[in-house]
Amino acid sequence: MPQITVDHSADLDGRLDRTGLAGAVHQACVDLVAARIPACKTRFRRAEETIVGDGAEEAALVHIEIALLAGRTEEAKTALTEAVLALLPGHIKAAEGVHLSVEVRDLEPAYRSARG
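Structure tokens predicted for 5-carboxymethyl-2-hydroxymuconate Delta-isomerase:
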């Protein structure tokens, strides 16, 4: 916990600073929702095709989902959402025009984690 997923358009492969972005999101989780760095896990998923609106124009996008153990206030989750959205453009080369979104949600009560 937190489980962080970054979905991004394929055309951002060379423009997305994955390591820097993951580190910044991990630190935001520590600062705003009392996570611990060793507990933060981020995976990146490349979307081969993304369509925004009617699809008439090519559009790049990044969507970050942060799943947390339950118990954080709505205010804390909103603060994390806003902080991650604000730091995201700094980790994308030529970020102008890229559609950005962030969602913070609670993990399901049945969530379990183990290290093999």
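The first strand starts at residue 3 and ends at 9.
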